[in-house]
Amino acid sequence: MKGPASEKQKDFLEELGYRGDLSKLTKAQASLIIDKLVAAREAAQNPPSPQRSLLAPIALVLLLVLAAGGFAWYTGWLAVHVAVADIFPAPPPAPPAPAEPEPEPVVEPEIAPPAEPPAEPAPAAEEPLPEPLADPASAENSEPETPAEPVLPPLLSFSDLTGTFQIEARIKSLTNGVVTLEKADGTVVKVPREKLSAESNQQIDEFIRRRR
């Protein structure tokens, strides 16, 4: 607070007994001096009680007495305990219990395997019959047999769900929902069943029934 002290502060300082020059004091200095004078007046009006000043030394003496008594009691108890231990020594430790003997393992008697029956004598080997002699006339007239050609399944018409794409092929196999088709020129095509039309799937079911 700047500026000279107010008239109210000056009057209050005069009441408190201030003897300095009031005209040179600022408001901040006047407030600080007023606080100090008020504290000094209150301390003079309320001096500390002599009883209170004696309480701290008395409490300290009591604490020291209690500490000394506790230490003496502990020392006496320790001495008695040592004397009793000397008079009545502790009993010796008990000997360890004897270890129990381990049980002997039970040995199972070995059972001899049953004797094998004597082997039967092997039958006498049959002598092979002599092969008939081939007729040279029939051998000349006979022609070598030609293997029969495999019968291929017929070509069927297959189309997709929209009917846009259509091919002629025969069914080769069906694995995990994928049908293998072979065109007339030998080209192999693999198509999932779900992409074929209902009529094409009926032909595939018929092929499966025939294979069973």
Commentary on this structure:
With 212 residues, the protein is an alpha+beta fold. It is built from 5 helices and 4 strands; from the N terminus they run ααααββββα. It has a 4-stranded antiparallel β-sheet.
| Overall pLDDT score | 76
Q: Shape from CA axes?
A: elongated
What percent of residues adopt helix (DSSP H or I)?
40-55%
Elements, N to C (H/E): HHHHEEEEH
The radius of gyration computed from the alpha-carbon positions, rounded to a whole number of angstroms, is: 65 Å
Number of strands: 4
How far do the termini sit from each other? 115 Å
**Which sequence of strands runs across the widest sheet?**
1-2-3-4
Topology:
Elements: H1 7-16, H2 27-45, H3 50-87, H4 136-141, E1 156-159, E2 166-175, E3 178-183, E4 188-192, H5 198-211
Helix pairs in contact: 1-2
